Predict the 3D structure of the following.
Amino acid sequence: MPKKKLKILPKIFSVNNTKDRRHKITTILGLKIKIKRKFNIKNLEKEIKSHYKNTDIPKILIVSHEFSHTGAPKVALLLTNTLKDIYKTSPIVISLKKGPLEKDFIDNNLKVIDIEEIFFNKQNFEKVAKNFDLVIMHSWCYKLLGKYSSTDLPPMIWYTHEAFEQSIFNSKYSIIRETANSMTECWTGSPLTQRGLKKICPDLDIKLLLYGVEDIKLPEVKKSNKIEFLFPATIQHRKGQDVLLKAIRELPKETIEKANFTIIGDCNQKYLEQILKISKNIPSVKIISHTIPFEELMKYYAKADCIVIPSRFDPMPMVATYAFMFKKLCIMSDVTGTALLVTNNKNGILFRNGDYIELSIILKNIINNFEQYKPIAQEGYKIYQKHFFMNNFKKNIEKSLNNILPNFVKKS
């Protein structure tokens, strides 16, 4: 009699599959069973109540789209610190995506609650939001966008920094409208963002709230005898490092020898390979393709004479704000939000987006006549004073929250 072939059953789950975080493995009667994990709102509510013991203080939740070392999450850090300064208690912060900036929040004694990414959806978010007096959704919180119709939600603010005029947002107009119209208020961190959102939601009252930066002193460093150019930003196509490198490549050899060019930032690997090819035979170019500690970055700012921002689109780059604050000559493309605050050749230098030939001419003139450009760098500081003073940021937030949270006493 022929032997029966054993039927091999398909593997439904793997006990060693650590990537499957939606389920947990438990043993029942000796059998390993995969059970779907549930979002534990009760434990979270206990943690919220434990943090907010003083009833005079509004319970504020800030949701950041990620904890990366990029502009918008850093503004979320500034916002959280400012609210802590106003109310003397940290808001609670959660992030849709983990990252290295979380350490900066914790180092500033800010309250971060870790919710696993798998539990982020609108339904769970509404459960969490109901425990607060105010929710600020910061930047592009993609999993939480859409219409909110629940009647027992607290006031909600969308503080957004997105470049809505870019074509990548064309297919998202409907969800952007639903989100914006569900909010108590919409704040934008750039006039470009405000303009773009206004085109999508023409009937909406959209506030411009430029972020603030504390005026800090740069460390003492040994300066070189060359003109030092710096561009610290994520190395990606949108930031335009290739435009800068092509401009440098156009410079005469004797001009290049009078300057150093430093690019710093986390990178898109494919784009990094592209710009490494462009810079291959330019000895004056240094590319650091990873994030460096803030203290070390400040040393590069201290060495720099000029900050170059060749971005193809950038709502309000913090790099430019630091340049103005440190009285560095700031050169930027005319499509950045900051360019709307600049008078060309008076308090900054502008060039046409993507025009590396024009940028090359500007670089050549600066390298050969740097003394003539120093007054422009000094004038740039007035942009910082007028638009980015930390005290102005704090006053603008207080003014907005007076209307939204009138029943709470400010402690500042």
Residues 4-23 have pLDDT under 50 and may be disordered. The longest helix spans residues 370-388. The radius of gyration is 25 Å.
